[in-house]
Design brief:
31% helix, Phosphorylase Kinase, domain 1, 13 strands, D-amino Acid Aminotransferase, Chain A, domain 1, alpha+beta, 6 helices, 2 domains, five-stranded antiparallel β-sheet, six-stranded antiparallel β-sheet, single chain
Length: 235
C-alpha cells in the first residue's frame, strides 16, 4: 500500500489488488470546522472502522448495497471501486447542529418528519447546501439518481433508527455518501460512524459522537467506545 490515491481528513485510499477495488484505511485524526480544529486521538481509527463495518454488514443483510467487501485488519478494509457522487446526503430526525442554528430551533427538538438535505462535497467551498435542481444543473447527478438516493436515505434511516434504539441510542442525524460502480449501480460508500452521525444516549441525552470533540466536551473516545460496545450487545 505505497501509492496513495486520496487522503482525506479521516481516511486514506489506496489502489486495490485487482483494479476493481480500493483499500481504505481509517486514520486516528479527528477534525472539525472543515479541518480548522485537528487532533490525533489514539484508537479512533480502530473504533470508527469497527462501528462502520458493523453497520454496513447490518445494512447489507437488510438489502442495502454497500462498498464493503471485507475487513483486512482493525483499521483497514477492502471496498468496491466506485466513483463518488459529489453530493452528501444528510438525514435529520431531531434538530441539532447547523440545522438548529439555521432555523433558530432549539437543539433536541423532535422534528415532525424526517428531513433529507443535500450539500456539495467540497472542502474548499465549505460543503455548501445544494438543492436537486442545482445538482442536476451542475451535472453532479441525474434526477432519477437523486430520487434513488432519497429513497435509500429514508430506508437506511428506518433501519438504523431501529438498530440504535435497541442499543439505547437515539440517532439524531447523519451523513451519507454514495458512489457509482462500473455497471452504473449506485452503492453506499464512505463510513457511518460517530464522525458522521450524532448519537445521543436514549435515557440521558449524553452525546457519544464527534460533538464531544467539536465542543471540547472531553472523553471523545469514551463515547465512541460506548457506541461500539452497545452495538455488539444488540441481539
Amino acid at each position: 500500500m505505497n501509492e496513495i490515491l486520496y487522503e482525506g481528513k479521516s481516511k486514506i485510499i489506496y489502489p486495490g489488488p485487482d483494479g476493481k477495488s480500493f483499500i481504505m484505511r481509517y486514520k486516528d485524526t479527528a477534525t472539525a470546522f472543515n479541518g480548522e480544529k485537528k487532533e490525533d486521538l489514539d484508537g479512533k481509527g480502530r473504533l470508527n472502522s469497527a462501528i462502520s463495518n458493523f453497520i454496513y454488514r447490518y445494512l447489507a443483510d437488510n438489502g442495502i448495497k454497500t462498498h464493503l467487501i471485507r475487513e483486512l485488519d482493525e483499521t483497514t478494509v477492502m471496498v468496491k471501486k466506485a466513483e463518488i457522487i459529489m453530493v452528501e446526503v444528510i438525514v435529520r430526525n431531531v434538530a441539532a447542529g447547523s440545522f438548529s442554528k439555521r432555523f433558530g430551533v432549539e437543539e433536541g427538538t423532535e422534528l415532525k418528519n424526517t428531513v433529507v438535505e443535500y450539500s456539495l462535497k467540497s472542502d474548499s467551498l465549505g460543503d455548501p447546501m445544494i438543492n436537486i435542481s442545482q445538482i442536476t444543473a451542475l451535472g453532479l447527478a441525474e434526477k432519477n439518481e437523486m430520487d434513488f438516493l432519497y429513497s435509500q436515505a429514508l430506508k437506511i434511516n428506518s433501519l438504523l433508527c431501529g438498530l440504535f434504539l435497541k442499543a439505547g441510542i437515539r440517532l439524531i442525524d447523519f451523513k451519507l455518501e454514495f458512489g457509482r460502480c462500473e455497471d452504473d449501480d449506485i452503492i453506499l460508500c464512505d463510513e457511518i460512524s460517530p464522525d458522521s452521525c450524532r448519537f445521543w444516549d436514549a435515557a440521558t441525552g449524553e452525546k457519544m459522537d464527534k460533538d464531544r470533540f467539536r465542543r471540547d466536551m472531553g472523553k471523545v473516545l469514551d463515547g465512541y467506545s460506548t457506541v461500539l460496545e452497545r452495538l455488539r450487545n444488540v441481539s
